[in-house]
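## retry 2 of 3
previous attempt timed out at serialization; input unchanged, resubmitting
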Amino acid sequence: MTKHLRFDASTGRMEPQSADGKHTEELLLLNDNATVRYRLGALKTVSLLESEIASQEKMLREVARLVRTGKLTKKEGAAEAAAINNELDVLRDMLLRTTGELPLPALPRHRVGLTLLSA
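## retry succeeded, writing output
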């Protein structure tokens, strides 16, 4: 695919690299305003999630330091660490789903007695 199209993260646009790439870009409207804005928003979301994960990891290290220095009891530190780890689990899950590294949950096959998806 890189032979025909290249993604420019700074602009959110797909840049054609060949005649086939240009045709694909035009046919699929790869650079229409809404799509480009969506891509830029997704990139911003990933950046914010990564930043928040780093911040939570720093807080976790700080809690460990406070326990080591006796400024927090082990019980208090464990409670703080558990809360931070729960938040990290949520943030990491969001990041993996946003980047597509973790698939979205499967749709339910049945709901209120109705078949939504057949096997």
